[in-house]
Write a structure and sequence with these properties.
By secondary structure, the chain is mainly alpha-helical. It has helices at residues 3-14, 34-48, 59-72, 80-97, 136-147, 157-166, 178-191, 212-220, 234-242, 248-252, 265-278, 284-295, 312-336, 347-351, 353-372, 375-378, 380-409, 417-427, 429-443, 450-472, 485-488, 494-502, 505-517, 525-538, 541-560, 566-579, 585-597, and strands at residues 104-108, 121-123, 126-128, 150-153, 171-176, 195-199, 340-341, 344-345.
Length: 598
């Protein structure tokens, strides 16, 4: 057993534990009277005058401050969620007020509309509100648009985050119920976008009400630029995103066949590759490279949107990370015969298997070329080190995928938890390791960071893949549109291993039979998934997987605790929070599944 395998085995048994992440599900009450709401808000405003706004908030620290304020007022935890919202509002108020109106997004909920006789229709962005005056939505929207706001009547977090990363807005003014605000806490706090939100007075999702004057006050916020800004990774997220937008993508990676006739198959092939490289995804891997590079240079990009820059060789190295990732997705989709990727048909379904394989190969070559072409600017040793790490990650990925394919095609479908974790450590972790290593190596010597980068990436990567397993049972619009695809494709997942280890002999035999016939029996897929889901419930698979995520997360955090300088350590903490952000999964992906299983 290798050292890495031993660490994986230990992690499943005795990884360090930390207090569970906060859920404010039990604290959804809004103070019943306006007098009490004003009292809490005033106490929060006084408290926030003492808060250091240069450091970003997180959910746990916000909870702790809110508990202290409620205690000073003689109130219990019933209003904890409300008080936390008031805290974030006061924390960001000056910075929101300093953002020009035309760079703000006004986010309004559907449920404020008059449910009876509302003439508005829905489009891809949400409610296409008519300014009829029948409800507050139109009043708020009219006021905001007059000032220059962009307005969105929707509760869709993905579209909001996409707008944020695209660079079109710099602050959010919102209205939402505490249920929605709780879900948004992690995403908004982690994104570091200045925001203020007015809670709805109830969460019944129909004909709700709000303190109108608070909403109009937040819309009207306008002061000179704030003297103190909070650290944020948003500038680097936008920098990573911008590299894949035209004309920047072609500027960084000129198209060799651009001058050829449109009918030239070489140009067509190049276009398919570039289009897929630019399509979808969160661009998290190139962001990791850019942020690691920035952190080892004092993290100037986290404090300002100007006064720092990234050289083209650094950008191209970050692009290379995504190029390898996209190549692996093309090949994975073929090997698993997946139907969808990024909400669209997979390349092999559109262009055929042969063309898709070749596009993946092209992207691999392009990835290596993006680094090797800049060897003079980067320095020969730096370029060689980065290329070596990319090659190592590529080989490990192929090993993990190969092990998965061989298991899938074998007659014996027995699978242990350690077997699944080994595959995850090879398939998922190397991408994180390569992204982190590349950023650090571009910034300078890497020797003292090599082991912690490898160990940290292994724990984060494995936890990320387990979360992805759970997500497969929910379905999602970012990637795969059909729930239970891992079962239909007979993939060796940790969930399956946990089910095999935790089932009775009869259930284990049935599960092995179902997995063994999954790929050949295309009919009855819904029944297959439903039956496997039932067996997973019986073995408490989702709860066990969720606990393993927490263990691997705790191990990654303990590794980050020892890292210097502070800027790099803080980025590793941020990486854990964002990559392993569960959102609704602990509730919908575990508890709700169990309830359905009953």
């Amino acid at each position: 057993m290798t050292v890495a395998e031993a660490e994986l085995e230990v992690a499943t048994e005795a990884a360090p534990t930390k207090p569970p992440k906060l859920s404010t599900a039990a604290f959804k009450a809004v103070p019943e009277t306006r007098e009490l709401r004003d009292k809490v808000r005033a106490a929060v405003a006084a408290f926030c005058k003492t808060v250091d706004k240069s450091k970003p908030l997180n959910k746990d620290s916000t909870k702790e401050m809110a508990e202290g304020i409620l205690s000073s007022l003689g109130l219990g935890e019933t209003y904890l969620g409300f008080t936390m919202v008031m805290l974030t509002n006061e924390f960001w108020r000056e910075q929101v007020a300093a953002v020009p109106f035309h760079r703000r997004l006004m986010l309004l909920p559907h449920c404020l509309k008059n449910a009876e006789g509302c003439p508005a229709e829905y489009d891809e962005l949400g409610l296409d509100c008519k300014k009829c005056g029948a409800c507050e939505v139109g009043d708020f929207r009219t006021k905001a648009e007059q000032l220059g706001y962009k307005v969105l009547v929707s509760e869709g977090t993905p579209i909001v985050l996409k707008i944020i990363v695209s660079g079109h807005i710099d602050a959010i003014v919102g209205v939402a119920c505490l249920n929605v605000l709780e879900k948004a806490f992690d995403k908004v706090l982690l994104a570091g976008i200045p925001c203020v939100a007015t809670p709805l007075l109830s969460s019944n999702c129909k004909n709700t009400s709000v303190d109108n004057d608070w909403v109009f006050e937040s819309i009207d916020l306008h002061t000179p630029p704030a003297g103190q800004k909070t650290k944020t990774y948003m500038h680097l997220m936008r920098a990573a995103n911008a590299m894949f937008e035209e004309p920047e993508l072609t500027r960084l990676v000129p198209r060799a066949r651009a001058a050829s006739p449109e009918t030239d198959p070489l140009r067509t092939h190049e276009t398919i590759a570039y289009d897929f490289l630019a399509r979808g995804g969160k661009r998290s891997r190139p962001f990791i490279t850019l942020a690691a590079y920035d952190a080892l240079r004092g993290a100037p990009a986290t404090l300002s949107d100007s006064g720092w820059e990234l050289s083209d060789p650094v950008k191209r190295a970050a692009l290379a990370i995504e190029t390898f990732h996209k190549a692996s997705l093309v090949h994975d989709d073929i090997e698993d015969d997946d139907s969808f990727r990024y909400g669209a048909e997979t390349l092999h379904r559109v262009h055929g298997v042969g063309t898709a394989i070749n596009v993946g190969d092209y992207l691999i070559g392009l990835g290596y070329r993006l680094v090797s072409r800049d060897r003079k600017e980067l320095g020969a040793e730096v370029a060689a080190d980065v290329l070596d790490k990319l090659a190592d990650a590529h080989m490990k990925l192929s090993e993990g995928q190969g092990a998965e394919l061989l298991w899938r095609d074998a007659r014996n479908k027995a699978l242990t938890t350690l077997d699944a974790l080994k595959i995850y450590a090879l398939k998922t972790s190397p991408a994180f390791e390569a992204a982190l290593y590349t950023g650090v190596r571009l910034a300078g010597p890497v020797e003292k960071y090599e082991k912690v980068i490898a160990d940290f990436s292994r724990n984060v990567g494995v936890a990320f893949q387990i979360l992805n397993d759970i997500k497969d049972w929910v379905g999602d619009s970012d990637n795969k549109l059909v729930a239970g695809q891992d079962v239909c494709a007979a993939r060796p997942t940790l969930l399956l291993a946990l089910a095999l280890e935790g089932s009775s002999p009869a259930q284990r035999e049935e599960l092995l039979h179902l997995i063994g016939t999954a790929r050949t029996d295309g009919t009855g897929a819904e029944e297959l998934v439903a039956r496997v889901r039932h067996l997973y419930f019986a073995a408490k698979v989702f709860e066990k997987a969720d606990k393993l995520v927490d263990k691997f997360r705790a191990k990654a955090e303990s590794l980050a605790d020892e890292v210097e300088p502070t800027e790099f350590r803080e980025f590793l903490y941020y990486l854990v929070d964002t990559v392993l952000e569960k959102g609704d999964l602990p509730r919908q992906g575990v508890t709700q599944f169990v309830q359905l299983g009953r």
